[in-house]
Amino acid sequence: RRRRGRRAAAAAKRESRSAMEYGAGMSQDDFMRQDECLLLNYNDEVIGSDNKYNVHKFVSGQPKGVVHRAFSVMLFDGDGRLLLQQRAQCKVTFPKVWTNTCCSHPLHGQTPNEIDPPRTSTSAEPDGIKHAAVRKLKHELGIEPADLKSASSKYMGRVHYWAADTLTHGPNAPWGEHEIDYLLLYQLPKGYTLPLRPNPEEVMESAWVSAEELKARMAQEGLLWSPWFRVIASELLYDWWADLDAAFKRPAELSIRRFDAPAVHCKAGGAHSGAAATELSDLYKLEQSHEWESAARRKLTLDAEREARRRDLTSASRSASSAAANKQGGYGKVPTHEHSKKAQLARPLEVAAGLRLKFGSMALLSNLDLSTADEALRFCDLKLGEVSRSFAAVIRQLPKALVLDILVFYLVLRALDTIEDDMDAFKGREVDKCAHLRAFGDKYLGDEAWSMDGVGQGAERELLQNFCAVSRVFNGLPGSSKEVIRDITTKMGAGMADNVSIDMGQGTADLAAYAWYCHAVAGLVGEGLTQIFVGRGFETAALCGQGEQVWPFCKPAEENGGRSLGLANSMGLFLQKTNIIRDYLEDYADGRAFWPQQVWRQFARSSELGELARPTAHGAGSDGYPTAFDAQNDPDGAAVVGKGVNKQALSCLNFLIADALELVPDVLTYLELLRTPEVFRFSAIPQVMAIGTLAECFDNPRVFTGVVKIRKGLAAQMILDASGLGGVHAWFHHFALQLLKCCPKDDPSHDKISAATQRIIGITQDKAKARQRKKACTWLMWGAAAVGSVGVLVAYRRS
User: Fold this and answer.
1) Were 58 and a residue from 70, 157, 176, 543 both cysteine, which residue would form a disulfide, CB within 3.0 to 4.6 Å?
2) How distant, in Å, are the alpha carbons of 100, 321, 660 from that of 73?
3) Which residue from 204, 212, 102 is spatially nearest to 153, judged by alpha carbons?
4) In the annotation, is 306 catalytic?
5) Is 592 a catalytic residue?
6) pLDDT-wise least confident of 87-101, 312-326, 667-681
7) 68-76 and 176-187: which strand pairing?
């Protein structure tokens, strides 16, 4: 409701501006904040709108700004002279440069409407662009609409270009242009004198020139020229100018001509180097082999744009942490945001917890007997430690009769997940990928001769290369465990295969699809683990029951032998939703994202999920978000990035966290039903880590620049306390209070967040308070003992 109210107020403001003369009483800062440019994809399809500040920022995270629609007017008099203008010194972008008659942007929310639909071979003249041109010609040069009625006008085509304003702001310029520019010719009747009243806030000077005079001016040293007009002049203008009568009769070009910035308009520091320097010219060459209106050409263009955005978001030029991530060569090549050693050492209790966990009596002891292990089991134990250093100890501490079953289950699913995750090994061979995923449980698992090469990286690749060892250990498990592992692996493989053919570049379709995906890759794991716990006699059948959440993918208990497995699914979904929230950037960069479109489109200003990763979308430079932008890496960008910045990404993030928190009552119910201490610890530790991760991610812009991690010492404290229900409740209570306290009052999801956290607080407060009292008594005892010891020492020394 708050969001609808803000949009209504903004619309009313734009309507009142449209009713009066455009620009009346407005400063350049007003224009930059209030004018809403039309955001585009590379096919010139309008996908949203944003203010002029945000689309023109050439800063870390969006080094080429945001592509938007523009127009350039070339107005000729009856003698064929072209009207030029020199942009005013107070302009934010490209001040003092000479350029064509008028160059500006069609805007969202104007009357008459300035938004044109995508152009096709049957499109008429772009009326929206012409409305915008008439508006700006009056605003900049004082040309009345009536004076243009006698002029001939013609739309000629489009050019797509980008350029940093290095002439004004130097090699690290934080401003620039990235536009698909509509080119318009106007010519006045012979003998007509056009009255000009240039607006000094927009235009320093104007001049009528012939073609030869323009060439001489552009060759003259000391004069600055706009990069878009240089492209227009060198590529198109003089050909039209040679015969204006013929030019006005030409059909408009349907395809978009694309031009990269010349070296003088490229930023330093690597942001415009390599493939980024030739992005548009490379794309234009590829497009020439397709019919412009073909589906193949459209897909080619969008794929190229997506790759360019991925490069912008993960480039080593974005930040020092991105550079480190690129050197690591991990999936997605995004940095990990870990707390500094100084920040961790400043918390002595956490340091002590880490030492106790690693060296003290609270260390997780392994129950995996390797004294008589064969080569296959030793390989499995080695790979477990390599593919999951943090979770390996939690698995190894399980009861001796259970540890091997869960170890093998984990490695089998990790191998399957590696096949699903690798977006390069099966590129162009997605049918083969689906076949492998579907065959993994039924055919490959248990076949001691099967392995796979060339998929995954590092330890995961080696796991697949030697999967025969995993199958050998699997074949020695009890029959009930083998049946569960094979069944769950087969179902997961089929679910993963179903998603391979779905374009996940923009996330899942809706909340239902989001939940279904989480079930397919994590809820099923919860089902499998629960069935093994119960089947091996470590837990009761109550664990297979139904919770508060009613999942469409869970059969009713009466149809499934009295087992709905609803609680087990909630356990898996809570973990998976946490991972998806935390891994936004990594998943987007990999080209398969999972944030539901039904949610993020409510908050985004465009129909592009990658928008949320732009610094202009997650509070960069604004008060309260000092980590939203790497000022050390881009000091010039830091000086301007906060102008007109929005926070829609944070609003979307907080909604998804609230959605995940609604599963916590089921999680706590499941944990309360457990009776085996080792199984409790195995189940509780990931859940406590998950709510800690959600608290770390909440309202945190670093989610959109890398992968957020909790402090290692804090993780150690949570692991130590997760041995009993009281400790688990204490941590859930702690983080729920923290989330409630940190929730911005103006957050659109404030009520949802408040309800979810208060529900957790209500469930956990009794055990949390009891835990606090117990800890307080322990500290008092230790304090009393310390005082007594000091007293004895003092008495001894006096004696």
Assistant:
1) 176
2) 7, 44, 52
3) 102
4) no
5) yes
6) 312-326
7) parallel
Q: Report the amino acid identity of residue 540.
A: T
At 345, list the tokens. Answer: 């050492």
Task: Quote the CA–CA distance of 157 and 181 in Å, as a whole number.
Answer: 8
Tokens of 221: 């040293």
Q: Any bridge partners for residue 257, and if so which?
A: 159
Decide if 177 contacts 65 (C-beta within 8 A).
Answer: yes
Q: Which of 517, 603, 698, 732 is catalytic?
A: 517
Instruction: Report d(CA 407, CA 473) in Å as an integer.
Output: 10
Concerning whether 517 is annotated as a catalytic residue, the answer is yes
Side-chain-side CA neighbours of 104 within 13 Å: the count stands at 28
Instruction: Supply the pLDDT for residue 318.
Output: 62
If DSSP codes are grouped into helix, strand and coil, which group holds residue 704? helix
Mean pLDDT of 599-628: 95
- Could you give the CA distance from residue 549 to residue 570 in angstroms, rounded to a whole number? 7
Bridge partners for 259 per DSSP: 161
CA distance 521 to 405: 19
* pLDDT at 571 > cutoff 90: yes
For residue 214, is pLDDT > 90? Answer: yes
pLDDT of residue 460: 95
Distance CA 497, CA 434 (A): 5
Average pLDDT of every residue of the chain: 92
The pLDDT tens digits for 405-446 are: 999 999 999 999 999 988 889 888 999 999 999 999 999 999
Spatial CA neighbour of 264 closest among 69, 54, 71, 94: 94
- Bridge partners (DSSP) listed for residue 203: 87
Catalytic-labelled residue, pool 81, 472, 592, 601: 592
Instruction: Report percent pLDDT > 90 for the chain.
Output: 80
Cβ atoms 526, 572 nearer than 8 A = yes
ω into 112 cis (within 30 of 0): yes
Residue 120 has pLDDT above 70, yes or no: yes
> Over the stretch 334-346, which tens digit does the pLDDT of each residue have?
888 888 888 888 8
Spatial CB neighbours of 407, under 8 Å, sequence gap ≥ 6: 368, 380, 381, 384, 395, 396
Longest dimension (CA), the chain: 118
| 566: nearest Cα among 574, 557, 558 | 557
Residue with tokens 């530790």: 685
The active-site residue out of 682, 704, 732, 735 is 682
Let me know the angle formed at the C-alpha of 553 by 549 and 558, rounded to the nearest 5 degrees. Answer: 80
DSSP string, 648-659: HHHHHHHHHHHH
Task: Report the distance separating Cα 648 and Cα 434, nearest Å.
Answer: 36
How far is 56 from 179, CA to CA, in rounded Å? 10
What spatial distance separates the first Cα and last Cα of the chain, rounded to whole Å?
A: 77
Residues listed for the chain: 799
Q: Rg of the Cα trace of the chain?
A: 32
Q: Tokens at residue 570, please?
A: 């909630």
Half-sphere exposure of 642 (CA within 13 A, CB side): 13
Q: Which two tokens stand for residue 645?
A: 């910045």
Q: Identify the active-site residue in 318, 563, 582, 614.
A: 582
Q: Is 682 a catalytic residue?
A: yes
How many CB atoms lie under 10 A from the CB of residue 700? 23
**Cα–Cα distance, 683 to 670 (Å, whole number):** 9
Burial of 676 (0-12, 13-18, 19+ CB in 10 A): middle
CA distance linking residue 441 with residue 490, whole number of Å = 4
Residues β-bridged to residue 365? none
CB of 229 closer than 8 Å to CB of 103: yes
How far is the C-alpha of 446 from the C-alpha of 619, rounded, in Å?
A: 51
Q: Is 183 helix (H, G, I), strand (E, B) or coil?
A: strand
395 has a pLDDT exceeding 60: yes
Residue 668's contacts (CB-CB under 8 Å, 6 or more residues apart) are 728, 729, 732, 763, 764
Beta strands at 152-164 and 176-187: parallel, antiparallel or unpaired: antiparallel
Q: In sequence order, what E strands does 525-594 have?
A: none
Q: pLDDT of 348-376, one tens digit each? A: 888 888 888 887 766 788 999 998 899 99
